[in-house]
């Protein structure tokens, strides 16, 4: 069993493609705490090759506004000037919801981003109250099973209807059938995220995902600049689950 220090000595993180900034906000309340330039500075300091700014989808309470994307692009251009060796992408963490394409980012808006990640959150159109209660309180098994089926169907539909880069924190915030979700990631070539901030996927979940022909990605899901590029504890979790480091697309041996 490698210690966290051993992991840092042995493996490096090449990129972090899931981070949040002050563009995730509700009015004056900032859900993401840093500016784009602050995340870029942290990524450059950590020696990352690339960084993605992936604020929450527009249906989230503190989601980004499509109208502000030109400003985000300008901020990214500024960050690139300040840190020329770092690539900075504009992505989004879309919400998986009940819409025609299963996301709160419509197909027409896809090209406004360099890529789209997607995940489950407590937003309208996701059976929000039921998912929240079932996940945080004792809840009848029968109802849990029904939600699990619904949530799984929604994720599979979103994966198959869109070109999604990363499925963020699968199994967090809502019960799912990991086997069916893993199969859909395998069929669509979607990266399975191992997330530094959430409880899922945990080692047991990862032991299911690794049985399928999927690739993994480690993300900090940083909401503060100081957490950009955090990976060692998450890498420890991946190793605990027996995932071959070669299957994690942004991990490299020193
Ligand atoms: Zn998320
Ligand atoms: Zn996130």
Notes on the protein architecture:
With 254 residues, the protein is of the alpha/beta class. The chain has a single domain, classed as Metal-dependent hydrolases (TIM Barrel). Helix content is 35%, strand content 19%. It is built from 8 helices and 11 strands. The strands form 4 sheets. A 4-stranded parallel beta sheet has the order 2-5-6-7, with helices on one face. A 3-stranded parallel beta sheet has the order 8-9-10. The chain has a two-stranded antiparallel ribbon with strand order 1-11. α1 crosses α8 and α5 packs parallel to α6. The longest helix has 21 residues. It is globular and about 55 Å long. The protein starts with a helix and ends with a strand. The mean pLDDT is 96. The structure holds zinc ion (ZN) (2 copies). One zinc ion (ZN) binds next to loops.
Strand content: 15-25%
Q: What is the share of helical residues? A: 25-40%
CATH topology descriptor: TIM Barrel
The total count of helices amounts to 8
Looking at this structure, what is the CATH superfamily?
A: Metal-dependent hydrolases
Q: What Rg, in angstroms, do the CA atoms define?
A: 18 Å
For the termini, the CA-CA separation is 18 Å
What's the overall geometry? globular
**Heterogens:** zinc ion
Give the strand line-up of the largest sheet: 2-5-6-7
The CATH architecture term is Alpha-Beta Barrel
